[in-house]
Amino acid sequence: xxxxxxxxxxxxxxxxxxxxxxxxxxxxxxxxxxxxxxxxxxxxxxxxxxxxxxxxxxxxxxxxxxxxxxxxxxxxxxxxxxxxxxxxxxxxxxxxxxxxxxxxxxxxxxxxxxxxxxxxxxxxxxxxxxxxxxxxxxxxxxxxxxxxxxxxxxxxxxxxxxxxxxxxxxxxxxxxx
Length: 177
Prior knowledge:
Elements: E1 10-13, H1 17-76, E2 82-86, E3 91-97, E4 103-108, E5 113-114, E6 125-127, E7 130-132, H2 142-149, H3 159-176
Antiparallel strand pairs: 1-2, 2-3, 3-4, 5-6, 6-7
């Protein structure tokens, strides 16, 4: 726990945090086990079937040893486990889990938040070009979610952009005639 961020300022806790941590611990532990067992597997595969068996065993064991933790990290790296708010600084701190199960803190102000027009997979908003994912229902006080997402600001329907693009299309049609 970071001493500069007090739990009383926590405005969000992701309910999947324990499950994500447990799956990543299990995945990393089995990967370490796979690396440790690799020499024994290779020796036994060589005795049983030579080069084709070594290739098959390395491919199978290598997939679960190296690819699984990487895929898990690619899916879970955006998940915000905790979100803190510092009212004095008017700054948020999002906590995510790194590949090696460390807590990564991302400090940001509301001006740093970009909400994509079309959300990506596991993306609620972007902070400094880093995609983050939160569950709106897990905010005990929804005003923080509303502020982060910009729902408290006036809606921009982009009528002016639509009017300008429609006007330029009409000019092109007139010139083509």
